[in-house]
Design goal:
4 helices, six-stranded antiparallel sheet
């Protein structure tokens, strides 16, 4: 898994019409995201997040867990993420006000967003996310069920069988 995201806006990738995706590519996601943004900002999630070292309760419009710096075709969302570092990069937007979210998006182009007081950004190898609300998850662009969920690094080798021809 490359990215696990939670929240209403995370559902954009799997609710965007396939024909629109084929015609407009990434623009189709942006249009759907803009349509979903007011709902996302008006209904922040109440999340309970547990890592080995921490417990957080936070209200957030979106949370992203990534093993790559590219999320949804956009680079630098999780700028410190490396696929081989055995860490999950966690990005949580803490506020739901349009002004702050807009600034976070602008700052993301230069990777400055992770230093914002409106963003929580950390690395861990395992975390559990719960909520008293119904919160959908997105696994690499597909519906991943609702919370609660445990996400962890699996550093065990995987055997892959291929045909010799």
């Amino acid at each position: 898994i490359n990215v696990f995201a939670v929240g209403n806006i995370a559902s954009v990738s799997y609710v965007t019409d396939k024909a629109q995706k084929a015609i407009f590519g990434r623009l189709a996601y942006i249009v759907e995201g803009l349509k979903e943004l007011p709902n996302t900002l008006n209904q922040p999630m109440e999340l309970k997040i547990k890592t080995k070292d921490d417990y957080l309760e936070v209200k957030s419009p979106v949370m992203i867990i990534s093993n790559s710096n590219t999320v949804g075709g956009f680079e630098n969302i999780c700028p410190q993420a490396k696929i081989d570092d055995q860490k999950l990069d966690v990005l949580i937007i803490k506020h739901s006000r349009l002004k702050e979210v807009a600034q976070i998006l602008i700052d993301a182009f230069s990777s400055k967003h992770i230093y914002s007081e409106d963003v929580l950004y950390f690395q861990t190898d395992t975390l559990t996310i719960e909520s008293n609300q119904t919160v959908p998850g997105d696994v690499d662009g597909e519906y991943g069920g609702n919370l609660p969920v445990k996400v962890e690094i699996n550093n065990k080798p995987i055997n892959i069988l291929v045909r010799s021809d």
